[in-house]
Each structure stands twice: as structure tokens, then as C-alpha cells.
Amino acid sequence: xxxxxxxxxxxxxxxxxxxxxxxxxxxxxxxxxxxxxxxxxxxxxxxxxxxxxxxxxxxxxxxxxxxxxxxxxxxxxxxxxxxxxxxxxxxxxxxxxxxxxxxxxxxxxxxxxxxxxxxxxxxxxxxxxxxxxxxxxxxxxxxxxxxxxxxxxxxxxxxxxxxxxxxxxxxxxxxxxxxxxxxxxxxxxxxxxxxxxxxxxxxxxxxxxxxxxxxxxxxxxxxxxxxxxxxxxxxxxxxxxxxxxxxxxxxxxxxxxxxxxxxxxxxxxxxxxxxxxxxxxxxxxxxxxxxxxxxxxxxxxxxxxxxxxxxxxxxxxxxxxxxxxxxxxxxxxxxxxxxxxxxxxxxxxxxxxxxxxxxxxxxxxxxxxxxxxxxxxxxxxxxxxxxxxxxxxxxxxxxxxxxxxxxxxxxxxxxxxxxxxxxxxxxxxxxxxxxxxxxxxxxxxxxxxxxxxxxxxxxxxxxxxxxxxxxxxxxxxxxxxxxxxxxxxxxxx
Length: 493
Prior knowledge:
Blueprint: H1 2-49, H2 52-56, H3 59-69, H4 74-102, H5 107-135, H6 140-162, H7 172-193, H8 203-237, H9 240-276, H10 280-316, H11 324-350, H12 354-403, H13 411-435, H14 441-458, H15 464-474, H16 481-490
Helix pairs in contact: 1-5, 1-6, 1-8, 1-9, 3-4, 3-5, 3-8, 4-5, 5-7, 6-7, 8-9, 8-12, 9-10, 9-11, 9-12, 10-11, 10-13, 10-14, 11-12, 13-14, 15-16
């Protein structure tokens, strides 16, 4: 279990670095390219990303699981999956090039899509190597690859911006980073596991892998549709500027979502899985506390974004992105649903409701498509943001319905806590609203955080019991019985 803790730590550090560097880089890039150029850039990445699921077909998750169970099958499974990925990757490149030409996009967009297709192919191929390491319970080299990838992208991107490179060259930093990402994977695979990436073909092995992988493929397809369909439809139904404004606002909300909700859900899943087979009562308590911690951060974050949306957009992106202010406000309303979705998914999967989870998100993906087709022609980028709000709200309702079948949530405890969180956020928001045009944005943010936590402590939102629970929860990955008892004590059981 110590190795599990180390693996979690390695990936957590790498992903935090990845998200922070990527956010800063894309902000700089958005200012450099302007809304129209940034729209073309993000469209190319979203368009090709939609087809990336075809390359691995869900087999990478199967690869990790099967290797973890029997390491003697590493070369056999990896070789066959590598063959499939190479063939499907070439097919995807041809398909992407064909479709972008059929859709009659301008030459600069086509060039961006060509570059992006190659990037997706290299990155997905590299992932097959890193998933082998996951099967061997070693994520150190994957974490190193992530850090190298983002560092190369950042430095190369800043250089191209410095020399004022043209738009169609701005994907070169990602292409270069992908080459380093793949090279790092090949190097460590040979050095540590003594495996060369040699394609193999065994009909029966490949057939069995495909049979195991299709549920993962369906789930990944739904996730990609949700992540990319809004940008693709916005480009087709509106224009590149609208895509740029929408993605500028979305980058900010996604950064908060992945750093906060993503990290919490990663830590939550093992605990929920442990208690599901041992104590549904303790599982409910852990889940209740997770909702509390998430709301403790999410509700004031929403208030802050609603009040400071305009100064945030102007400060980060400039006046050319002013239309993104309304988009950011609409996306802010979606944050509670998006954040809670992360831990709801952890609960459903831990409670052996993965098929229900896939069904819910499949319905959600279809709903997003329909809402975008209706709302984008009416409200452009704001229509896409409104589709996120409505779609996530409906997904949340379905998730709550099924979650209640797994655990009992302490409603009274949560209701009381959320009332005080909401009150603290309102008391923070009043002076923040009055001062937002009088002091610099940075000072406004610091002031808002300080005021919120003053009231949070005044209302006893953060007590010793919660702090002890959080400490023991984060240390839970040690997996000892002693750790379990400490969690119970901190919960007052």
C-alpha cells in the first residue's frame, strides 16, 4: 500500500504542475492569438480529440488491469494492443483529414487539424506505454513524462510567441512536446522493464481484449462527446470568435474543477471502495464529509466568479474577450453540479453501479448534443454555456437518485453546514461587490478569501472534528486497520 501512496503522490504532483502550466500557457496564447485565432486553435484540438478514443478503443484500461493481475502477460498484451493502436491511429489520421476537407474549413484550420491529428496519435500511442507501467504499479515515469511534456510545450510556445510565429505554427510546441513524451515512455520501458515496443498480432488475444474493452470504449466515447461537442458545434454553427470566447471562459472553470474536484475524487474512490464491502454507514459518513468539503470551496468560488467575472476576463485575456464575461457567469452557475459529478461518479463506481454511471453519462452526452444544437444558434457561445448548466443539472438529479440507493447521506448535517457556507459567501460577496471597481483584482481575490474564512470560522464551519477527519482521510491510503479506526474516531463513531 506504500507503493499506492507513492503512485498517487507522483501523479498528483505531475497533474497539478500540468494544469497550472497549461492554464498559464493557454492564457498567454489566447492573448497572443486573439479570439478568432484562439477559436481556430481550440477547435482543431477538440475536433481531433473526439476521434482519439478510436485509437485505443478502451484497451489501455484493460491492459493495466490484466498486467496487474498477471505480469507474465505484459509483452503479449502490450504487443497486440500496440498493433491495434498503430493501425487504428493511421485510420484516424486519414479519417480526420478527410472530414476536415469535406466540411470546407479554411486552409489555416485544416493545417491546424493536420498537426493536431498527429499530436493526438503520438500522445495516445505514448499512453499505451505508460499504462504498462500502471499495470506494474509504477507511475513515476508517467509523472516524469507529464512534466517533460508541459515544460517543452511551455518553453517552445513562448519562443514562437516571442518571434511572432503565424497561427498554423502554434501547434508545433504541442507536437514537439508529444515527441518528448513518447521518447520518455520508450526509454524507461526498455530500461526498467526491458521491453521494446514490438508490434505483435495474435487473433485470439486481440479478440479477447476487444471483448473486454468495449464498455471502456463506450464510456470514453461519452466523455469525449461531452468534452468536445460544444466546441465543435460552436465552430460549425457560430464562428471562430465565439469558440475563442467560450474556451477562454471554460479554461478557467475547468482549471478549478480538475484541481479541486479531480484531486478529491481521486482520494475518495479508494475509501468508498473499502467501506462499500465493510460498512455502508461509514461509507455514507465519508461521502457526506466529501460533499461538505467540496461545498466549502465551491459555493464561495461561484460567488466570487459571479461578482468578479468582468475584471477577471479583462485582466487575464484583455478587452478582446469582453463577450466571454457572460459566458463565464453562466459557467459559474454550473460549477456545483460539475464538481459534485466527480464525487458522484466515484460513489457509483465504488458501489458497483458502473453500468448505471455509463448510462447516465451516455444520456448526458446525448442531452448535451441536443441542447447545443438548440441553444448555440440562438445564443452563440452563451448557448453552449447554458447547455452545460442544464445538462449537468439533469445529470446531477439522476446521480442523486442512484446515489441514495447506495448510501445514506446525513441530510441534517449537510443542510446546516451549507446554510452557513452560503451565508458566509453572501457576507463575503457584499463588500467584494462594493470594492470590485476600486481595488486591483488580485487584492479583491485576497480580500474575498480572508473575509470568507473569517466568517467560516465564526460560524464554526471548520472545527477540530472536520480537520481531524480530513487528516485521517488523506492518510487513509496507508490502508491499515489503525487508519480505519482513526477515521471512525474522527467521525465521532
